[in-house]
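Appendix C reproduces, verbatim, an entry submitted by the partner laboratory led by Prof. M.T., so that reviewers can inspect both the input and the predicted structure.
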Amino acid sequence: MARLPLVFQLALGSELKLWAKAGRAPVLWWRDDDARGPTGALEQLLTLARRHRAPLTLAAIAGPHLTDLVRRMETEPGVEIAVHGFKHVNRQPEGQGFGEIIDSDEVEWVRAQLRATVMAFHRAGVAPTLFVPPWNNLRPQLIAALPDSPLRAVSGFDGATGVDGGVARLDAHLDVLRWKDGARFRGTWKFLSRMRRLLKQRRLAGQWDEPIGILTHHLDHDHATWLFLERFLALFPVRARADLMAKAATEPTALSA
């Protein structure tokens, strides 16, 4: 690993030394949400990923520009396309959070939505295997419906790698943005402090290979976010989701991030 800049050293240096002493290195992967089609922000994201040879899981919405998005990704072998919800529409009652699936939805209704969405991706020219629920809202009906679809894995937020109802799970844990009062960069110290806590938790549990997922939303990045990602990816390599899913075939861990 390259020499750490001062703020990285202050936030992570002591913890990374303990990892290095054990002959270990953090296992990181990268998920970006809300892709809708080719945009300038998407090109900036892809350039960043190529420059740092960083595999990327791009959670895409089945909208009018999905085919254009899929065609654009044909020349980006390091990018995996995932399904980001049915239509990315909030159906929760007002004041009860966000999500596409509500308590009264039947599993069969969810199955039908999954079938229709997967067909849209297939028509666009891609066969994804990962489902990323909007707002990371993993509902029991979704877990029950997924085994009957080509989508064999899910990704939410803050959970451990494992298997839930026969569905492999690999979550994101570190959101580069904060969302209250509008999306903006979370801040270097806050991001790295949470990363330190996650690393310590894994070290103390002896779960060195438990992945940590980096979460981005390219359409919402401000200048400070892009600058931070440039620095971060230069220091910490990320791995492809497909390379990490073997762990999700084992028993779920007791780790709670």
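Residues 6-90+105-243 form a domain with the TIM Barrel fold (CATH 3.20.20.370). Additional entries are available on request from the coordinating office.
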